[in-house]
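Sequence in, structure out. Go.
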Amino acid sequence: MGPKPKPDLTLALELQQKLRIKVCPLYVEFGAKKFYLPRPLKIPTITTLRTLGDIRALLGNLPADRRQKNTWRHVADRLHHAARGGDINDAVTSLRLVLHLERVPCLPQ
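Output:
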């Protein structure tokens, strides 16, 4: 018997099978390796983002209506692309632009 999958991956696979939907494979990609940002991004009084996983967590904590905006969906798309071997700077640049549009201060460290 092989090792058990991580709990969140198990849930994602169950949902995929029961609901017959395609679940984003970011659990697998982020679980095995940390993808560090070229420079950490500090959002004062909130957090410092150091990895793509931190950005994913930030997106997951956004209200659902905000996540559905095209700007945030673009950030999620760039994040997914970066996790699959694309340019991490594309994800960081997209995030910084959206934070600027939302008037959220974001300081490169």
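Check: Confidence is low (pLDDT under 50) at residues 5-9, 19-32. The chain has six helices and three strands.
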